[in-house]
Amino acid sequence: MQVETTDFLVDLADVNRTKTRSSHCSTTEGDVLVKVEQFAFTANNMTYALIGGATGWYWDFFPAPRGWGRIPVWGFGKVVASEIDNVETGEELFGYFPMSTHVLLKPVKIRSDGLHDTSEHRAHLSPAYNYYVRTLANAAFDSESKREIMLLRPLFFASFLVHDLLAERAGTGAGTVAITSGSSKTAIGLAHLLSTHKFGRCHIVGLTSERNLDFARGTGVYDRVVAYDDREILTSGSVAVADFSGNSTLIQKLQDTLGNRAALFCLIGYTHWDRRSLDIVEDEKMVRFFAPEQIRKRVREWGAREFDRRYNEALQAYIRHSRGWLHIVEGFGPKKVGEVFERVSRNQARPAEGNVLSLHEFADSGHATDR
Hints:
It is a single chain. By secondary structure, the chain is α/β, with parallel strands linked by helices. The chain has eight helices and 18 strands. Strands 3, 5, 6, 7, 8, 9, 10, 17 and 18 form a nine-stranded mixed β-sheet that branches. Strands 13-12-11-14-15-16 form a six-stranded parallel β-sheet, with helices on both faces. The chain has a three-stranded antiparallel β-sheet with strand order 2-1-4. It starts with a strand and ends in a 13-residue tail after the last strand. Residues 272-276 and 365-371 have low confidence and may be disordered.
């Protein structure tokens, strides 16, 4: 089968420069063609682009013309053609997709609950990112939660793993856990876990911009929320910092403020990508978080089924909590995708907003392109 596909491309030398491209893709033996129906786009995807620019890692998932890349996104797709016996047309998959209308997969290790893509260009990448859930066989993927799953499942993955890392590394030694970019969805997820699964008697402090103070306080997950320029930002006790900002100026300020009271700095993301630093020196107290490494460790220790059980249980609780503050906005078509990309890349997205997008002009139900 051959289809015309549309790709949303990002300039590898300047992630703020984008374009769309039309091309054709065809199935051959062993292929499964998936229509990418909807995907979430958040600040986390900008982190992928920035880390990809420095390491090349995230750009390897989905090939693009020389000098350009396709940012990976998490979403739902539908099988529209299959050249293998045990994957049927019409099946729904959840997983890592390109910002495109279609993608070709080469599935192996096909089980009732999921499959792995073994396309040659992905062979060196983490298996966790090459796995696709067959949603009908997984009770965690109920139809009423699909939009929250797209938005929160991949973000909360980081929240869940960082919580695990902090519990292991900081333990009871930190009286306070300070979380930068406290209005971001991943930070809120971490604070939610800390508030419901505390290690020791830690005090949870959210750090955010002045404009987002009220929102962060309204989520109900922090013991205290303060602005970055608050002079009494962190005044006493031992502190573990979970940094989602990547802002080297802010990190330096916190280092100077805390001195030897710093139990740990865990560097996670780049929500402040315009002020990011990729050359921070790591040591026993300054640790750069890398999700695949923590996944491998826990799957090895807990087993894959137990890992999934713990994660899905925690995610479902977080989805229920998010319905008190998360506003989901859907958009369809390349123009809308470009508008949302520009807003997120300029750090202009509202913290309560969650964008669920598609490069297709219309939803399957025939609804209008923006709602």
